[in-house]
Amino acid sequence: MKLLVTGGAGYIGSHVSLQLAEDGHEVVVLDNLSTGHAYAVIGAELVVGDLADGALLDALFNRHQFDAVLHFAASIIVPESVADPLKYYINNTANMLNLLARVEQYDTPHFVFSSTAAVYGMPEVEEIDETAPPAPINPYGSSKLMDERILADLAKARSALNYVALRYFNVAGADPQARIGQDTPVSTHLIKIACEVALGKRDAMDMYGSDYPTPDGTCIRDYIHVEDLARAHVDALNYLANDGKNATLNCGYGHGASVREVLEVVKKVSGVDFPVREAARRDGDPPQLVAANARIRKTLNWQARLDNLETIVAHAWAWEQRLSSR
């Protein structure tokens, strides 16, 4: 298929683009490189540009007649969304409207959307399934929920469009060959931060809250390997190409690890016993966020291949070492 991947030079988008190219698809990546990197686009055409540029979008859609769009381009840092909500509603929602207007105008049949578990807010359940009512607590989650609703409304109005929205939990790891990985200047991801501390890129590791109602007092999260997440997008595309119905699906393993457990694994893999400072809880951190994943396994026939915390950390560590040697 001929595919447009927006944000395909970023962390998750680049892994999906690479898998699609390796599967033989013709991939065009559109990225403004604000957080992505040209080197991360492997086996695909890179077009540097912004979703706010309607003329550019028209030219791309007119030239290529895409079979599907996979949409990753978004701002994703929760504290920043609270401090600068307009940036998130413009980049995440207004630009999604620009993109969907072209999807409709040029009769693009399939759409895979990068959503987030942040749409759930702080549900009072240990395992979240897709029937949990959305209740985002920050502009990031709200902007993504708006996108989901716009996409669903458009698909309802235009029966020729079908879509899958994938709600990510905690993404981590890197390409097993260390060709690509997370390379954002200010990361808020626990495993990446811990690897940077182990390499001496950061001065210290803060652990926010140690008195949660969990076995070791620290928050529990569902960490999914970026390669398994990327494969979920490939499976979603294949599902839609085979007349799959519209679906909204969680992406996670169905079990979690605590902050303390993650830090111990990073220490073990890196061989560095770095210090950890206990800090106060952060606002909006629920004790546990774990995905119920029965629906994605049944709908897409998706199977986890790298469901092992030590493997996830080992790949993240190898990538950080490669970044440091550049």
Radius of gyration, whole Å: 19 Å
Under CATH, the homologous superfamily of the largest domain reads NAD(P)-binding Rossmann-like Domain
Which CATH architecture of the largest domain would you pick? 3-Layer(aba) Sandwich
What is the molecular shape?
globular
Which sequence of SSEs, written as H and E, runs from N to C?
EHEEHEHHEHEEHEEEHEEHEEHH
Physical arrangement of strands within the biggest beta sheet: 3-2-1-4-5-6-11
Describe this structure in words.
This protein has 326 residues and is of the alpha/beta class. It is 40% helix and 18% strand. It has 2 domains: 2-171 and 223-251, Rossmann fold, CATH 3.40.50; 173-222 and 254-324, UDP-galactose 4-epimerase, domain 1, CATH 3.90.25. The strands form 4 sheets. It has a 7-stranded parallel beta sheet, with helices on both faces. It has a 3-stranded mixed beta sheet with strand order 12-9-14. Strands 7-10 form a two-stranded parallel ribbon. The chain is globular and about 55 Å long. The model has no long low-confidence stretch (mean pLDDT 96).
Q: What would a concise description of this structure say?
A:
This protein is an alpha/beta fold. The chain has helices at 11-22, 54-64, 78-83, 85-105, 139-157, 190-198, 226-241, 259-270, 294-300, 309-324; strands at residues 2-6, 26-31, 45-48, 68-71, 110-116, 162-168, 170-172, 205-208, 220-221, 223-225, 247-251, 257-258, 276-279, 288-289.
Layout: helices, strands, pairs:
Blueprint: E1 2-6, H1 11-22, E2 26-31, E3 45-48, H2 54-64, E4 68-71, H3 78-83, H4 85-105, E5 110-116, H5 139-157, E6 162-168, E7 170-172, H6 190-198, E8 205-208, E9 220-221, E10 223-225, H7 226-241, E11 247-251, E12 257-258, H8 259-270, E13 276-279, E14 288-289, H9 294-300, H10 309-324
Parallel strand pairs: 1-2, 1-4, 2-3, 4-5, 5-6, 6-11, 7-10, 8-13, 9-14
Antiparallel strand pairs: 9-12
Helix pairs in contact: 1-7, 2-4, 4-5, 6-8, 6-10, 8-10
